[in-house]
Amino acid sequence: MKRKKVSSDYIAEAKRYLENAKHNLARIPIEYGRYADPKLMSEAAGIAYLAALKAIDGYLINKMKVPQEKLPGSIQEYRAIIHRKIPLNGKLSSALSNAYENLHIFAYYRGGTEKNMVKAGIENVERIIKMMDI
Question: Which domains does the chain have, with CATH numbers?
Fold first, then answer.
């Protein structure tokens, strides 16, 4: 029988994703303030963004009793449920928007490679994990 995941499992998984992303970023040379390998940087940015979503999912499932099948499926749904259900929703919403824009849109989809943009996205993912780890 499969054991039900608890909040700490989601946080551990989110931290593992984030560490994996950081490890991958550390392997990429930086030239003139930009990551020199856009493909590897894009993969790392995507993994880091997923870490934020994992942490929020764990909170929603374990603290807010949202069934797994009712988890948000889009950034708009994440924003809506954060606004309605989660304490500190202003700080969390801001951190999620920053991670979404910097990591998911600019770095992952658009191929932006600027180091400080990615670093700011990573810092916001760290904030999200910390907020959800209660």
Answer: 7-132 (1.20.120.330)
